[in-house]
Amino acid sequence: MNHNLQDNYRAKGLRKHLVDQLRAKGITDEAVLAAINEVPRHVFLDSSFVEQAYQDKAFPIGAGQTISQPSTVAFQTQLLNVERGMKVLEIGTGSGYQACVLASLGAKVFSIERQRNLYFKTKEILDHLPFRVKTFLGDGFEGLPTYQPFDRVIITAGAPSVPTALVEQMKTGGMMVVPIDSPEGNGQLMLRLTKQPDGSLQKEEFGDFKFVPMLRNIGND
Ligand code: SAH
Fold this sequence. Notes:
Helices cover 28% and strands 26% of the residues. The chain contains six helices and nine strands; from the N terminus they run H-H-E-E-H-E-H-E-H-E-E-H-E-E-E.
């Protein structure tokens, strides 16, 4: 086993410090902070980046993609209001870090990645970790019709609009947290959408973020 996949005291200490930073940045949900404290972020990065793993920064994970900044992961997770046992669909597995944070909260996580190499690389890492995440190579715009309906949907790439297939796969009362491309084309606006009994969406806005783009179809690009 790659030694980088193991946790250690140094990493645990750095992680506690990261949790303090997130608290200072306004993350208040103790369950979310506990999940950040539990998931070893360094195992999702290449071994030379152990120190940087616990800074509040995004990081390259290969294939032109990034592991989201811890404060963004914590913020999206807090907005999602996950409860133990809920079925959560994640679009954009990437490194697998966000998926493990959700699993650590007791969610049943279904995560889709479109980038083939990244999908296989991350699957290999997740196979060695104690977090229960089901990963799928596919196009997140289509969701997972076979596994619907979901209590929660989280999109971790900048979406051009709200994917209609994903709304259809949400339970009534379910929530989606999604960064939507802003009309000015310089980032995304974080939205939380709650599905009403009549199928319409109640919308809340939570500020500006910067994500890699949500792209169509499986690919190697
Ligand atoms: N949640 C990730 C963040 C990854 S960045 C983490 O914790 O590391 C966003 C990811 O979304 C990238 O890996 C990108 O390849 C993927 N992505 C982009 N468009 C997608 C789509 N249509 N379906 C699934 N994944 C997509």
